[in-house]
Every structure is written in C-alpha cells, then in structure tokens.
Specification:
By secondary structure, the protein is α/β, with parallel strands linked by helices. Helices cover about 45% and strands about 15% of the residues. The protein folds into two domains: about 15-30 and about 95-230, HAD superfamily/HAD-like (Rossmann fold), CATH 3.40.50.1000; about 30-90, Orthogonal Bundle (DNA polymerase, domain 1), CATH 1.10.150.240. β6 (about 175), α8 (about 180-190) and β7 form a beta-alpha-beta unit. The longest helix is centred in the middle third of the chain and has 18 residues, at about 75-90.
C-alpha cells in the first residue's frame, strides 16, 4: 500500500495507480501522415490549403474543429473529414514513428500502473498504430474521438477512461500530454496534469497551463515512479 501523498487524503493502493497518455506528440510522431492527409483532402475537394504551420499549431483538436477553423463551411466539414480519414487509413502506419523513449516509457509505466490512451485521433487508427509498434498489449483502455461527445480540454475523455478502468481515485491518476488541451482536461478531471515538451506544445505554454512539465514522456514516467516510491 502506498501511503498518503500530496494529492489525496487517504492511502492509495497499487491497484489504484493509472497513467493515461495522449498519443500524437506524446508517444508518436504522425505529423507527416497528418499533413499528407490534409493536403489530400484539399487536393480532392478544393479550397485553400491552410499551410503546414497552421495545421501543426492545431494538432490535438478534433478534425472537424480543425477544418471549421480553417474556414471550411459547416455543411462541407464531414466530407473533408471523411476524405482525410480515407487517405490517413492508407498511410498512417507508413508515415508514423515512435517518439524517442516512448517504448521505454510505456514499458516502465506498465511495471507499476495500469495504462490508458486518451486521444482525439480516431480510436480505430490509434489501436492499429499501437499494434503496429507492438505496444497495444500494455494498455487496458483507449478512448478515441468517436468514444466521447466532448473532447479535451473537457474532462469527459479522461473520466470515460477512468470509468472503464474502474478507477475511483482520480488523485492516483496521471495524464501525460504535450498540449494545454491535455493539461486542461487533466485539471478538469481532478487527475494529476503532466506536460511533456516532445510534441506540439512549447514549454512556456505548458507551464502557463499548469501542472508538471518534463522534457519527454520517459522522463515524465520516471519522475512519477520516483514520486510514488517516495510517498
């Protein structure tokens, strides 16, 4: 049994420990696949491509919200999303890589906690990517964009993951992510927010959003383990 720590008023048991991970920018780099699929949708359906920089700046938001933000009319958004997904389906495993230290972070985390993924990517493709890298076996739950109505920074995706895990101790759960969307969702769900600088969010932005900020996901998991051991 783990003794009381700064996040809870009662003892936390080993079975309570949960680490949730964002996917893009936290465990994987699928920037090439994302940009390729956005370009393909504009090539096929028309409109002015917003540019790689604009797309990178909004990765982490749902696809539909991204297209709306780029000026696609509401009645056309789902056509663009469908076109994007059809292209992404064909290339996602070919144009995605694990971030440095991600496999080690997952393996280490799985040695002392139950794991989940909370992402705004389509769940089906997220599972396929993790299976492609031989890592899905470490995760007990994956919440994708189609599994919730409200997305990060709303707490619904995190709360959905905890419900499936049967976790009733949010203070014993950490959410690791690379954007303020992840930090905001963690804070709203009363879990421990942990930012990483290996993805799309800048350290300064993550620090303003609150929570711990680490260089990468492996360092974040190492620090979580140390905190647990010292608590």
């Amino acid at each position: 049994m783990i003794s009381n720590n700064q996040y809870t008023n009662r003892p936390i048991h080993q079975n309570d420990l949960v680490i949730l991970f964002d996917l893009d920018g936290t465990l994987i780099d699928s920037t090439e696949a994302i940009l390729h699929s956005f370009r393909a949708s504009y090539d096929e359906l028309g409109g002015t491509y917003p540019g790689d920089g604009a797309i990178k700046a909004t990765i982490g938001h749902p696809l539909s919200a991204m297209y709306r933000g780029f000026g696609i009319p509401e009645e056309e958004v789902e056509r663009y999303v469908a076109c994007y997904k059809e292209n992404y389906r064909q290339i996602h495993t070919l144009k995605t890589v694990l971030l440095p230290g991600a496999e080690e972070a997952i393996t280490l985390a799985a040695s002392f906690a139950r794991l989940g993924v909370v992402t705004t990517k389509t769940g089906k493709y997220s599972v396929e990517l993790l299976e492609h890298f031989g890592l899905m076996r470490h995760f007990d739950v994956l919440i994708g964009s189609e599994d919730v109505i409200r997305h990060k920074p709303h707490p619904e995706p995190i709360l959905a993951a905890l419900e499936l895990l049967g976790n009733s101790v949010p203070e014993a759960c950490w959410m690791i992510g690379d954007t303020c969307l992840d930090i905001g969702a963690a804070k709203a769900a009363d879990v421990v927010p942990t930012g990483v600088c290996c993805g799309y969010g800048l350290r300064e932005e993550l620090q303003r959003c609150g929570g711990w900020v680490h260089q990468d996901t492996l360092q974040a998991v190492q620090k979580i383990r140390i905190q647990i051991e010292n608590s």
